[in-house]
Amino acid sequence: MKLYIYEHCPFCSRARLALGLKDLAFETVVVMEDDAATPTRLVGKKAVPILEKPDGTHMGESLDIVRYVDTLGTPIFDGPPEAALDAWGDAAWPLALKLFIPRFTEGDFAELATPSVREAYRQREERAFGDLDALRADSARYIGKMNTKLEALVPLLAGRDAVGISDVKLWPILRSLSIVDGLQFPLAVRSYMERLAAAGKVPLLFDQAR
């Protein structure tokens, strides 16, 4: 199997985490951010992740990929979702975007390997999210709000050892936030992040925090 990704992309992280947790063999292919031709050829639009299945066909949409790979071997994501974790993720997502999107445009990611690609990506994100410099300037305010949310996540993770579909949605948000310097990840949250990163073989972004 092959998985076409952007390294920064939280939706790609869902598929990467699921494949890693299932311990399935696959090749990672990083698509350059300005390469619309490859994903369009494979699934008809510029979007990742894309999974090339063993039969040579391709599929997109992160959660569809997760559900497919869960049919390979013993299922681990087929239980009911955790409503509290899903609700936390839904509530945190708009705020998280304000923090990690400006930093993604500065990050060390293979899909942004040339200055022209990086600038085109930055401009596209500005069209989607507004002035990234202004978001950066408001970082302290957003970080304070997110730190409060991270504290509220602690009791939701208490005693959580198993993994399920809600973890596949939650963990990529936390991974994305690990690029934000100044966030205070409570021990329980940091331990959860690191445990799934190791088990899923997907690195966190603390070494790029800015």
UniProtKB/TrEMBL annotation:
Single GO cellular component annotation? cytosol
Record-linked PROSITE patterns? GLUTAREDOXIN_2 (PS51354), GST_NTER (PS50404)
Protein name, entry field:
Glutaredoxin
Q: Which NCBIfam families match?
A: GRXB, PRK10387.1
Please name the taxonomic classification of the source: Bacteria, Pseudomonadati, Pseudomonadota, Betaproteobacteria, Burkholderiales
Q: Which domain of life is it from?
A: Bacteria
Q: One Pfam family for this entry, by name?
A: GST_N_3
Give all residue intervals belonging to the GST N-terminal domain: 1-77
User: What is the originating organism of this protein?
Assistant: Massilia aurea
Which InterPro entries does the UniProt entry name for this protein? Answer: Glutaredoxin2_C (IPR007494), Glutathione-S-Trfase_C_sf (IPR036282), Glutathione_S-Trfase_N (IPR004045), Grx2 (IPR011901), Thioredoxin-like_sf (IPR036249)
